[in-house]
Every structure is written in C-alpha cells, then in structure tokens.
Amino acid sequence: MPHDISLITTLAAGFGLALVFGLAAERLRLPALVGYLLAGIVIGPATPGFVANVQIAAQLSEIGVMLLMFGVGLHFSLDDLLAVRRIALPGAVVQMGVATLLGMAMAWSWGWDMGAGLVFGLSLSCASTVVLLKALETRGLLDSMNGRIAVGWLVVEDLATVLLLVLLPPLAGVLGGPGATTSGDEPLWWTVSLTLLQVSAFVALMLIVGRRALPWLLWQVTRTGSRELFTLAVVTAAIGIAFGAASLFGVSFALGAFFAGMVMRESEFSHRAAQESLPLRDAFAVLFFVSIGMLFDPAVLMEKPLHVLGVVAVIILGKSIAAALLVIAFRYPLNTAFTVAASLAQIGEFSFILVGLGMSLGLLPEEGQSLIVAGALISIALNPLVFAAVEPARAWVLRRSDLARRLESREDPMAALPMSTERRYLEGQVVLVGYGRVGRRIAAALGARGIPFVVAEQNREQVELLRKQGIAAVSGDAAEPEVLVQAHIANAAMLVIAAPDPVNTRQMLETARALNPAIEVVLRTHSEEEARMLAREEIARVFFGEEELAKGMTNHVLERFAPGGEQPARA
Fold it and tell me: N or C: which end of the chain has fewer CB within 10 A?
C-alpha cells in the first residue's frame, strides 16, 4: 500500500470479527459483550495471525469510554436512585468494600504489593450496568421492584467508581506506582485536596453554566431542522467536554463525559440526544471491548488456572453472598436477595476502565489485566445461568433450611397494617397495587375525593414514607397471597393493579377472586395481546397504555372541532 492504513485495518478487523462473534454469542444466549471480547483476543498480539494496531485501538477505546460514560450520564436518574437509596447506598458501599478486601487478600497471597491489590480488588467489585440491564430486560424484571433495587445498586457502584477514577492518579505515588502524575515532594493531603478542588470547580461549572449553555446550544441547532447537525452537536458536547475537563481541570475523560450526559439529561432534548447518539455510542463501545480483548493473554488460563478460579469465585460467590446477606439484613425477601446477588455476579466496563488506569499508572501488573478480562469473560458468560438459577435456588433453600423459612416469614412491621388502622380502610376500600407514576396519580385522585384505599407496594422505604403521610400501606409483592390478605382484599370493593408487571398479574387476580369473588378489578398493561386476552376473559377492566393515550388525544381534538367549540388558530 502507498500509505499507512493501520486505522482502516483495525476498524475493519475489529468491527467485522465483533459482528461474527457477537452474533454467535447471541445465538448461544450469551451477552454480545462476550463476542466482542473474543474478537479482540483473536486480533490481539497474544494470538497467531493478523494483529491489529494496539496504539490505535487504545485511542479508539478512549473514545469508547467517553461515549459509554456519556450514555451512563444521559440515563442516570437521581429519582430512581433516591427511591431505593436506603438499601442501594449502604449495600453497594459495603459490598464493594467486601469484594475489594477479598481481591486484595488474594493479590497479597500471590505476592503483589498494596497498590496492585487495591486496583485489582476494586476492579472485581463493580458489576457491568450494560450486562445487568440486558439481563433484566430479557426476563421482564426491569420495571419490577427487584430490578429497580439492582439498577440503583449499580448506579451507586458507578458513582463510587467515578470518584475512584478521580482519586487514583493523585494517590498513585503513595501506592507505589511509577506512573504517578504528581511530585513526591507534595504532601498527600495537598494532592488529594487539589484534585477534589479541581473536580468541584468542574462540577460547579457544569451545573451552573453547562445546564444553561447546553440546552441553549441544542435549541439553536434544532431550529436549523438538520438531523446531522443535532447528532454532531451531541457528540461534540460529549467528547469536547470530556477533553476540556481533562485539559483544564485535570479530571479524567470518563468523569467529563459522565457530567456532560448528566447535564444534557436536564434538557428537554435529552431523549432525542440519547436516540441520535446511540449508534455512535454502540459502535465505539464495541471498539472499547474489542481493545480490552486485545490486551488479554489466553496463556493465563493455562499458566494460572487457580488464579483464574479464585477471581471467578470472588466475582460470582464472594460478591453475591455479601450482597444477598445485606439485602436480607434490610428485611427484604429471599427473591429480592437472590435477584440482586445474580445481578452482581459479573464484572464489565468499569472494571476495564479501572484496569486501564491502573496499568497506565504502573500500579497493576499485566497478569492482573489478563486475570480481570478472564474473570469478566467467564462471569458474563455464566450470568444467564446464574439468573436462571434464582428461583430454583430460592425454592431449594426454603425447602431445606429452617433459618431461611424463619427469615422469609419473620415479622415485619411494614408487612401488615397497624392495629390502629381505621375501619374504613378495612371494608369497602380500594386496594391499590403499585405506587409508581400511575399509582401515585390514582392515589392522589382517590384521596382528593375521600375514597379510602390501601397501597400494596414492594418498596419497603416507600411504604414507610406513605405511613408517615397517613396513608394506609403494606410492604410486599402482591403476587404473594399474604400481601393481599394483609391489605384486607377479602372485604375490599375494588382491586386496582397499577404496577407494570404483567407476569404476576394473573397470580394477583387468582388470589383476589379466591378471597373475594365479587371484587371488581381494574388493571393496566403495556401489551396489546395481554389486553385483548384479559378483555376476552372478562375478568377485569383492562386499560392498555397506548390505546388510552390515543383516546385522550382523540377526544381533545374532537372537542376542539365540535360545533360551538374553540377552533384552533390558523397559522
């Protein structure tokens, strides 16, 4: 060739093999992420055949990190986190601490120093949000209480990891890394304080100026009517802010991109920004995982099999057991504990980002990088099996363990209405299942008209808050008969199922009909097929989301054009 085409060959080989292996992984019911990592291994220097340009792949992966973190920021919801903060915040912090200590202990037994052990343990402690969301979506658990707790838990992990990415560089010298960026003459407190001051200045600038400037910029671009310019503006904001944050404030590309996404989420164009940037984010995310695979040495599987088994044990057993015990300690049922444990039984993108930073600072040996990638590959591949084992494992434990049965049936003050509950909430009341966006509006309407109702909600903290507001509520999964019994369904006038969980709707209906054959049932669904089937059986009044929205909009339009109605103004 007359000129260097290493960038083109790296892209062609990376995308091509990622497609082949990603498709094969999906056919085997594994996350496509496994295929992307395998593609990187195939074109990496540790395997025979074509070897892609590692330096170019590293730069492409940096762009992938920026766009990944930008996407995390775009989808970061403070409200969702606050809804489960009492379990997700302490749970994630303690679980990360346990996993880090396990990783450090294992690294110490191998003769590694403290800095290497810390980075290694931290890399084992943070699970992949990408893998989790895919697993929950596949099983229809994303909108369930268990799903919200798991996602909130990982959001806390993500935020903690972002903070670690900021603090590791100034601490590298103390931890023994030759890649430290600060002078050894400066005291540690000064280095950390200066770093936190720079981060605070960047965050303040983004929250004060960015929240106004970014929406204004997107509005100006939107007025042109050009889709390409809008996409360009979104990508420029993500990469430009990340680069500016690193150049002017000394913070990582990852943190800059994360805050760019967070600030853009505040604008009315956040949904469109996420939609327009998705293809580019996906493409560079693929290159990020491919580049990680290129750094993996498969020889570690043969040379250090016990090390690999130890890493997998910490990821799948150590983290999961710690998480399950924490969830149980917060008085949540076993199925919640097992779901959260399965959610955390893998590692992914943040682990790779930490590994990359540890390598660049000289803290982590190459062997550690290969062990982390091996642990990620194995844990992600096994994660669907771990999720599939949740319900059988729960049933098995309950059959064979007296302690598990006692924990499952232990008295919880939030699981039953207080003895002081007024009579009007026990007879002729409405039982409202779910207190989300829909349930909250129904409850407000019932309260405004003085209609007594009892809320059945899985979020224990939400139930506690409702009771403080004087609203009758019980904690638990309404698919379990005892929850509806505690809500006094036998004497209720109506059951309103406002929770978006069609999987358990029939169990709720069967329990309600068995205890109160004459009860009227109202429910919501997002599935047109489910709505038709339930309507055909005439067992409930079914409201299908899109149909009700269309009815409301149609009625408004017809009212405006009705004789004597207010006619829309002409342009």
Answer: C
Same domain, yes or no: 131 and 164: yes
pLDDT tens figures, 193-226: 777 787 788 878 887 888 788 888 888 888 888 8
Residue 359 in any domain: the answer is yes
Domain that holds residue 39: 26-394
Residue 112 maps to a domain: yes
Q: Residue 14 domain-assigned?
A: no
Do 258 and 140 sit in the same domain of this protein?
Answer: yes
Tokens found for residue 518: 């004459």
**Is 182 inside any structural domain?**
yes
Domain termination site, one of 394, 409, 438: 394
Tokens of 375: 């642990």
Alpha-carbon distance 347 to 340, whole Å?
A: 14
DSSP states along 391-434: HHHHHHHHHH-HHHHHHHH---GGGS--TT--GGGTSS-EEEE-
The Cα–Cα gap between 273 and 219 comes to: 12
The total number of structural domains that make up the chain: 2
Q: 303 — alpha (psi -120 to 50), left (phi > 0) or beta? A: alpha
Q: Do 111 and 155 reside in the same domain of the chain? A: yes
Same domain? For 294 and 360 the reply is yes
Nearest CA to 83 among 435, 321, 555?
Answer: 435
Q: Which of 340, 360, 394 is the last residue of a domain?
A: 394
Is the CB of residue 64 less than 8 Å from the CB of residue 72? no
pLDDT in tens, 449-494: 999 999 998 877 788 889 989 899 998 888 888 888 888 999 899 9
Cα angle vertex 25, ends 24, 28, to 5°?
90
CATH code of the domain in which 165 resides: 1.20.1530.20
Q: Per the structure block, which two tokens stand in for 398?
A: 């309950």
Q: Tell me the two tokens of residue 451.
A: 């209609």
Mean pLDDT of successive 10-residue stretches along the chain, which has 571 residues: 73 92 88 86 86 83 79 69 79 92 94 90 86 73 75 81 80 68 58 76 81 83 85 86 81 76 74 77 83 83 91 93 89 83 86 85 87 88 84 84 70 72 87 87 91 88 87 85 88 86 74 89 75 68 78 83 64 47
Gap between the Cα atoms of 81 and 86, Å rounded: 9
Which residues lie across from 431 on neighbouring strands? 454, 495
Tokens of 545: 């989301």
Shared domain for 353 and 441, answered yes or no, is no
**Joined tokens for residue 5:** 């085409």
